[in-house]
Amino acid sequence: MSPVSQNLRPANFVSLEKAKYCVAAGLVAAALWGPTAQARQVAPAASSFGASTNPAGTYLSALSAGAQRDTGAAAIFFREALRFDPRNAELMERAFVAALANGNIDDGFTLAERLLQRDPKNGLANLVTGVKAMKAKRFVVARGSFAKGGGGRQRDITATLLTGWSYIGSGDQKRAIETLDKLKDQRFGLFRDYHVALMADLTNQKTEAVKRIKAAYEAEKTTLRIVDAYARIMARSGDVAEAKRAYDAFDQLLPRHPIIRAGLAELASGKPIGPVVNDAEQGAAEVLYGLGSVGGSQNDELAAMIYLRLALHMDPQHALAVVTLADVYERLKQSDQAIDVYKMVPANSPLKDNSEIQIGLLMETAGHAEEAQKHLAALVQSRPQDPEAILALANLQRSRKQFAEAAEGYTKALAISGGGKTDWSTLYFRGVSYERQKKWSLAEADFRKALELYPDQPMVLNYLGYSWVDQGLNLDEAFKMLRRAVELRPTDGYVIDSLAWAYYRLGHFPEAVRELEKAIELKPADPVINDHLGDAYWRVGRKLEARFQWNHARDLKPEPEDLEKILKKIDDGIVDETVPAAASNEAPKVEEPKNGG
What we know:
The chain has helices spanning 3-8, 16-26, 55-67, 71-84, 89-101, 105-118, 123-135, 139-148, 157-169, 173-180, 189-202, 206-219, 224-236, 240-253, 258-269, 280-297, 301-314, 319-331, 335-342, 352-365, 369-382, 387-399, 403-417, 424-436, 440-453, 458-471, 475-488, 493-505, 509-522, 527-539, 543-555, 560-572. It is mainly α.
């Protein structure tokens, strides 16, 4: 994934270790998919079917859709199945969960009421009815619902936080903070202090707000939402310099994040900076967003979807909740659904521009190649000074082997960026694009410059070192680079393959076999590594194993030009027994840097 798309991602709301108990205590809806979570045949897209006359088939389709987390299909199939058997409590609960996960909130409200008639203590149903009451500003009713669900309130962080915000809605700030302070468990400390800080800031209790947000910030200085809230509260209390320092520190960690840039721009304008939340309903949305973010980080996608959908019901303008929900769909490889969610980002949000970039990248992932190119090209045309849009288009062009166009885009982005350490990845990818055009002097210069900005960057070490070996240049330095890359990325099969293939190029076949066997354990489904291992086996006389690896490489859908060579080797073996010395026109595998490195 490119640095551009990574910048759109919100950091996890809390560290995983601190959050483990929160999701388990707050919501157990994921269990409702039951024993169907193993892989099944994918259900048809939700738009491709209508009502069925076959109850058993509808139910099985619902289970299949649920197992694949196809929320649209699951919601429709479970609703249809419930129509055949309206008194089935288990089916009603599954339909309820599917509706919530898909954002069919009105259906969820209706089903919640039906479930509560059967089971007044249903935790999720009480949560949902409480959220409905909060949205209607019926805060006393909301508190009643939150009190009925699940275990004791001190163990139920969701109910406790939402109850606190309901007191804010009722105008009882003291009771609100007292409620949250009942969360004594240290695992809840971050959520408690963060939300008390927001409450105190909203009700103009500056001293309390600063004290609480400092405690949260000290616990999590690398979390986007905490940093933004900290900077805003510090600025609103009069310490603008500290607010700017906090934003700048995060920008060093994750450069150019839109929310950080927007916060710095607000500070620079000299105008009063706004709070994170403006009322109790937005506070409740913040609770649900935070817990949804935790669920997403723990691969509890269903719980995350439900929390995030409820957050967006409370505050449809909550852009981070939208982006987090879209990210859940991305990780489930449901690109079309992710695109639909990204379109929900409000037009006035700092995240809007980057969400449009992500839509273009997802169009490519979803197989809409022409639309992706047009979408990103239109963004660049409308925002010619936006390096993020330019980089997204250049990355797409590079992935399509349009190397000249990609290099031109990277050059434009570098001209706009004004220089800085974060330019290493742009230089790296421009170097790759030059190298694939056989413009080696330009490529080498970019790789060297990237290493000046980011010494020991493993991908750059890998590419430059391999390229030198392949050309018979700077061999001692090249092997040092490749060994260092492996030290830095010992579980990266592509990097290990580069070192192994360098040994092969120099005729050190036993060493090549040793390293390629490590690489194949890490990347068993990569056709290039399987092909390389076959070649190395042949060179050391293990010819039966060599043909096995080539056959495996053939079955893994290699590039057409590689397939032709593999088929010839399967038939004839390696006919030329001389040690290969010339350049192969192969290049190391290119992986996208994560979070700037």
